[in-house]
Write a sequence for this structure.
């Protein structure tokens, strides 16, 4: 359950992460998840700000009761391409964290409930939180093509490229695009 509110006079967006229920067990290990929630504010494809909750250990029904506050101008929130993406993540201490699901909330979201939640928050003339349950969806990893260093020759003389396997994208290993290959 998420509660959204915006205080126009202070230009503060508050995302109150209250609780989740019936989270799936992580695939990376047997047993109950250790979930936390990452909340990111986007304008178009650019992430403006991000914050996260504390981890709640060994539960499929975590109670977070944590407010995450973002300083953001009203005109940014009014833009059609602004959205919040909330990821529920299993905190796997010995490896890569596992994404348990996500929800996107914004004025142009595909799901009407998420769009309505945003609209109700924006229509408030008082700073009253609007709380709603949302269904988590599996994030779809973007198709990525990474290029190797231009100085590496290939048999055809063109740049080499390769597709990052989906499993690597899901587990956060696709950051090799920032490294040079030598």
């Amino acid at each position: 359950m998420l509660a959204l509110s915006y205080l126009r006079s202070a230009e503060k967006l508050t995302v109150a992460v209250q609780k989740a229920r019936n989270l799936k067990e992580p695939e990376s290990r047997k047993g109950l998840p250790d979930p936390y929630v990452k909340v990111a504010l986007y304008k178009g494809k650019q992430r403006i700000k991000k914050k996260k909750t504390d981890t709640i250990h060994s539960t499929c029904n975590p109670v977070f009761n944590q407010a995450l506050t973002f300083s953001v101008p009203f005109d940014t929130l009014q833009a059609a391409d602004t959205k919040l993406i909330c990821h529920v993540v299993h905190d796997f201490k010995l490896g890569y964290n596992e994404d348990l699901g996500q929800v996107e909330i914004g004025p142009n979201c595909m799901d009407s409930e998420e769009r309505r939640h945003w609209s109700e928050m924006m229509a408030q003339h008082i700073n009253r939180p609007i709380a709603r349950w949302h269904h988590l969806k599996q994030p779809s990893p973007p198709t990525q093509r990474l290029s190797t260093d231009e100085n590496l020759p290939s048999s055809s003389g063109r740049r080499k490229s390769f597709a990052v396997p989906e499993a690597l994208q899901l587990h956060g290993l696709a950051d090799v695009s920032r490294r040079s290959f030598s």
Remarks:
- The beta strands are 2-7, 12-19, 35-43, 46-52, 63-71, 82-90, 98-105, 130-132, 145-147, 161-163.
